[in-house]
């Protein structure tokens, strides 16, 4: 194998590894919102009814939470880097949420639009 063929083989291998890493991250019909630098990414999301949203904490050492006051959540359900929270949205509507400890300090909030 010459060096060009080797480079192509390595490229093909790295592409297949990326694909398998992505597909194993979250099940189908789960939409991931990443938390980094005190932000929900994306902060605004539109989904169809029945979709599950997963909030993943990708900080180095900061905990956060996902607090839907209108849904009667516990405001102190914090989760740490490497952990996540999930919620399935069956009803159509607009659902605002905040990170309760960082809403005032970092404007850390988001909104989920559930539409048919
Ligand atoms: Cu937070």
TrEMBL record:
InterPro entries: BlueCu_1 (IPR000923), Cupredoxin (IPR008972). Transmembrane segments: none annotated. Residues 1-21 form the signal peptide. SUPFAM superfamilies: Cupredoxins. Pfam families: Copper-bind (PF00127). It is found in: Membrane. Keywords: Copper, Electron transport, Membrane, Metal-binding, Signal, Transport. The keyword Signal applies. The keyword Transmembrane does not apply. GO terms for cellular component: membrane. One of its GO terms (molecular function) is copper ion binding. Residues 31-115 form the Blue (type 1) copper domain. This is Plastocyanin. It comes from Azoarcus taiwanensis.
